[in-house]
Amino acid sequence: MVEVVKKGGDTLLDIRNLRIEATVYPPGESPKNIVLVHDVSLTLEKGKVLGLIGESGAGKSTIGLSSMGYGRGGVRITGGEVILNGRDILKGGKEGFRKLRGREVCYVAQSAAAAFNPAHRLMDQVVEATLLHGTATRAEAEKRAVALFKKLSLPNPETIGERFPHQVSGGQLQRVMTAMALCSEPDLIVFDEPTTALDVTTQIDVLAAIKDAIRDTHVAALYITHDLAVVAQVSDEIMVLRHGRLVEWGGTRQIIKEPRQEYTKALVSMHDIEHAEQKPGATPLLSVRNVTAAYGGGCIKVLKNVSVDIYPGQTLAVVGESGSGKSTLARAITGLLPPEQGTVTFDGRPLANRLADRPKEDLRQLQMIYQMADVAMNPRQTVGTIIGRPLELYFGIKGRERDKRVAELLDAIEMGKGFSDRYPAELSGGQKQRVCIARSLAAKPKLIICDEVTSALDPLVANGILKLLLNLQQHEKVAYLFITHDFATVRSIADSIGVMYRGEVVRYGAKSKVLMPPFDAYTGLLLSSVPEMRPGWLDEIRSSVTAGFAKMAEMSDEGISLASGH
């Protein structure tokens, strides 16, 4: 057991011997109580940031939510104290929680898409808690929100609040949620993977804004993440968790440079997967030619004359900023956004532009794993039903044979058949993403479009998933279109790379060619924005990167195309 040393100073949050449990219902057995968090203690001073790291299911989010007196999905706080501003919030009852949440403590969720109400405009949701608690007038709250939109580098900060959630990109929506938490000026913010959905360049802006907000407002924060390079930039201290237990706790520099426990050492010394680049075959499996696509009845061009090829058994990685067109390209390929111009050819035949016009076999052979696992699964279906659906739909597999195959897929994603009867709400963010991967694999496709499929996973689990995908590729010759903002992932899995900016492919070719200097201006900025696992890196890089991307945007606004051709 790790000894926790009580600290002096101006303590804001003091969690003592926290114990959290949940009830599971195994099929054919009596309900059982399981312990998720085992007597964890921590303290946090005003104006400080404590990073919580560990693998998926380690208890990071569960502990973070306990600071609001909240347990999701039937989770119960069964022991310990949560002392905030000198009082035990667990003794305040429902009325105490209502006054606390959104005022003293705010939460930035991992999946902004699942956290926003799709029927209400962004501004109404950003200022809601502020107005509910009466800490500002509507005009004051909106003025504060616009200032935060500017600080978080959101486009059109004066008017973006008039949009609905579906009208902004995933990365932009995550930044709006960060503004929503900061708007009510709380004492404590729980950041639950706030940069998971962001590209590396946007991540710099958001991390810098979070650091500035903490400095300017003296707010304290729990920063939950699986990315050590990110947490090293914002945290004063780091707490390492595994299986609901405290593994190690210390200053950021000590944890990064001199970890004491073996598990922490494994996290810090994580190495990228070595994937040898494969030469393309004679005929592409998927060929995208001169595709242009738009939203709003053709008013907003989101893809501009895009051409790429994907070969059997190989991986094309597509990288770029949030809003650059990566996921939109996937939507055009799958028929969710019919192209205005150009063609998409798959396995030697043209694909119908609209998803509804494609035969079942085309749907089976071209699968997609979505970025937002929270909104990609039916919350009322069990994991077994979710994974088993493609088996029934495409192959007619039912009953015991289906259950056996589901169990095999759960083993393949390192979860095990014991998860078959759980519901999505009973899973961590990383576990949800793995279920989505298993569902896609169940269809035995020729091509899988992977949209940020490892972004919610800790490094150890993410490496396992990448190895799984590479192994499947080797044996089944399945191809991948891998959308990501993580260059470590690109190096690990890609054979070819396409770099996108504002709907155009600005650099394209074999991995060895794209990642070798001399770089074009945009690709060079992307590579320089990849976080390094050392404290102080963010402060060194933020000014030059921000200036570089401002210049890029100015060039694009003036009509200067950055596309370098193929």
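^ that was protein a. below is b, sequence first then the tokens
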Amino acid sequence: MTVTAPVSSHVWKFFRAGGFDQVRIETGSDLLALDQLDQKLWVALACPAKDIEFDPRALELLDADKDGRIRAAEILDAVRWLRSVLKNGDELVVPGTSVSLDSIDDSQAEGARVLASARQILANLGKGNAASIDLEDTRDTGRIFAQTRFNGDGVVTADAAEDEALASVITDIMATMGEEADRSGKPGISQEKIDGFFAQIEAYGDWLGQGGEVAVSAEAGAALEALRDKIDGFFLRCRMAFYSDVAAQNVNPGAETFLPLTGASTAEALDALRPLPLASVYPQADLPLLRGVNPAWDKEMEAFRRLVANDRLSLSETEWLDLKARFAAHADWQAKKPQTQIESLGVERIRAIRFSDAKARLDALVAEDKALEAQADAIDAVEKLVVLRTHLFHLVNNFVSFREFYARQGRAVFQAGTLYLDGRSADLCLTVTDAAKHAALATLSRIYLVYCDCVRRGSDEKMIVMAGFTSGDSDQLMVGRNGVFYDRQGRDWDATIVKIVEHPISMRQAFWSPYKQLGRFVGAQVEKMAAAKAKAVETDLQAKAAGKIVAPAPAAAPKENFDAGKFAGIFAALGLAVGAIGTAIASVVTGFLSLTWWQMPLAMAGLVLVVSGPSMIIAYMKLRQRNLAPILDATGWAVNARASINIPFGGSLTAVAQLPAGAERSLADPFAEKKAPVGSWLVLAALIAIGAVAAWRFGLFNHFLG
């Protein structure tokens, strides 16, 4: 599908920032004409509906399809709706939270509906003479609907009932099916709850009716079911005792079962007796129903004897089988009992509700409440108007253009706060859900990124923050370093670096990078040489010590004769090496000294350029490629432009610590390290080099070379 650019009659103004043209939205007419602006000129076409610094209610209203994202089409729908409600958009761009009633356009149907509802809200709040309606007025739903029985949301409360009988049914429905809050915040029930409740009432009532006479003996059936398994177990053990003498000796518990119970409490003893047989077991025994019964089952046995066994004193197995057959219908009926939430009301209450007119009366109440839905929706429309009047202009300048970000007069909605770490404060901070996933795309931004785990002291709150460092250097930025993050509400979080995406930070870092790398290389080599020398010395000392303790004294070595040829070769090699070094140094020094005075600084600058130039060129090219879009895209935005972060602007996003203006500074450090005479050593080295060159030139090393 091809989307054609709209024909705009509105005259737009643009400003240059981030390397591209952005629309300047300054007036109400600019905002209301937004649907005439070609979307190719929008900076963003979508943003997440959470995890940004923006009013949650405004995001909820704008996210019409509830998919978790605010899209360009939804912004435009809001603009068109405002155009159908307001006479002009002047109030939309002025800071504030109230809408003047005179600015609402009652010549249009939607505007007239919203205006009438706004006046009704103010009247309900006791502000009938007010000339404007504020954001807080629309959010005080409890007061708006406090004096009304119905509010158009389809939820009826007990207060809406016409009498106590119907109110008690509403209370029963809330107790069994759960309650819902109506617009005023009071608990109530919806049509769905009512239908579900009475469906269960009918199902349970039908089940009661199917029981017939069995339902009358439900209490007796329950008494039988309570002991069915225990009585079956008793007679089974009796048959086992009749079958086997060995079984007869083991089916009854032994003395070891009862001895621990002599010192136990009543409750503990009864709990221990509960798993044991109902009575003493022996072949062909009858079950006693009054005396000799397991005390843990006295209550159930008393109910069974009274309701089922007709107060007899004992029960044979044959009589037990007859009783089970008589109550089989009850068991089948019980198995068919529907699973409901209303059983706790009791049989009598369920029957009373079933045969009342409560269902029809509640349906009528809901219908009466729903009849006011249009008026209630108009109240919602008033809230929508005031919320958009308060927040839409702010969002547009962070969506259609990134004016608030590039102006650096405030903070954009995607900026989560400021990270303080390594003597710097980083303002380009975003909250992310997965550091690794975010970094995979955000690395294309060419910005040096640091990911920190942030924890609130004294709470379980946690979050991950990404911070972009655009000034200073990276020497002391490493995983594990700690800092402090301040969110937009001013709360402080403990921040620890967990991941770094490395890119050039500044030209200053690029200039010194070769020298620092050389210094690290030389330092590493010196450390290796020193470690090797120390190891060799240690090994030599250990060998000598071992030789003195264990080995016998070696025989005196024969004295070697002086070999002049051997030493001549050594001196020749040394001479060649010194000569080569001296020649090189002499060539450099001679060449430098042969320059005129004004050429010498140029030569030094050329040397610096040769060393630092390549790294600075590479850094400059990468710094010019820094782009905000990948960072935002990785968090759910759809950035429609290449939002560049050039070197000057990037420097403003990260502030390096500086002494305040006019501060006094003392350079006297009592614990400063003493400076080594570097100059003296350099002069000495230069003299040695010049002397070596002179000796070479005058042939002083020739007799060593033969």
